[in-house]
Q: What sequence folds into this?
């Protein structure tokens, strides 16, 4: 398995070139393409458009084909249609708004599709949404729900935070009102206070990765903050998370 920094560095050159040069390989739902996209990216009510764009940039840098689905489109998809994809990504935003704009049958279909083998990557709000919630969450975590990272209690809503890997390596990552994941999965990365920032685990036959931070964040989000890690390295680590989720691959963990 690749270490926390080695994995990011390996993808860094690809990410830099691709973010500058590639045109996004995107489809609408339903996709009218000869080969079915591997990834379904949710861009519905409650997600932040700029984070959707940031995730799209990483997907394009990896040359992964993807489809997007808004809330109405996801509500119209059956479990079998969801299972035609390998990976569902839910980006940042507001997890309560996300859940409350989806039918209960939709979250049940997603839950069942993951149990049957669809993989899931939840980023920030997508991490909250992947857990248990009274607001129509996916409950891929067998009833475990999540709190905000401790900075929220200090009145901090966005910051550069240190995330440490299991081998002692660390990256400064963009955090904005994100969760910590105590109580579920294997810990891939920890916040500086020791709570889980990134976790992974199985939900039935599906592979689930939840991230409380935004490794996909572009340079413009860093205004007024000090990072010791380059945006290229952090973006490359976003690629690591996406590929691990797509392929159901376990990352080094505690």
A:
């Amino acid at each position: 398995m690749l270490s926390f920094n080695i994995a990011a560095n390996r993808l860094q050159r690809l990410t830099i070139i691709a973010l500058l040069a590639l045109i996004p390989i995107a489809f609408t739902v339903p996709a009218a393409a000869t080969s079915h996209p591997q990834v379904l990216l949710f861009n519905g009510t409650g997600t932040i458009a700029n984070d959707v764009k940031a995730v799209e940039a990483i997907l394009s840098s990896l040359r992964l084909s993807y489809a997007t689905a808004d809330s109405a489109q996801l509500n119209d998809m059956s479990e079998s249609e969801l299972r035609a994809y390998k990976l569902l990504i839910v980006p940042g935003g507001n997890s309560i708004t996300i859940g409350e704009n989806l039918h209960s049958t939709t979250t049940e279909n997603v839950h069942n599709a993951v149990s049957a083998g669809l993989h899931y990557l939840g980023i920030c709000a997508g991490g909250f949404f992947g857990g248990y919630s009274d607001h129509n969450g996916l409950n891929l975590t067998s009833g475990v729900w999540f709190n905000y990272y401790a900075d929220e209690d200090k009145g901090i809503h966005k910051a550069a935070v240190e995330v440490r890997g299991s081998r002692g390596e660390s990256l400064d990552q963009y955090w904005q009102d994100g969760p910590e994941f105590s109580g579920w999965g294997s810990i891939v990365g920890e916040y500086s206070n020791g709570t889980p920032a990134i976790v992974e685990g199985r939900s039935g036959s599906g592979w689930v990765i939840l991230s409380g931070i935004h490794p996909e964040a572009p340079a413009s989000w860093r205004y007024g903050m000090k990072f010791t890690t380059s945006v290229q390295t952090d973006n490359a680590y976003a690629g690591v998370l996406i590929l691990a989720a797509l392929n159901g691959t376990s990352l080094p963990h505690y």
Notes: Residues 4-247 form a domain with the Rossmann fold fold (CATH 3.40.50.880). The radius of gyration is 17 Å. Residues 74 and 249 are 26 Å apart (CA to CA).
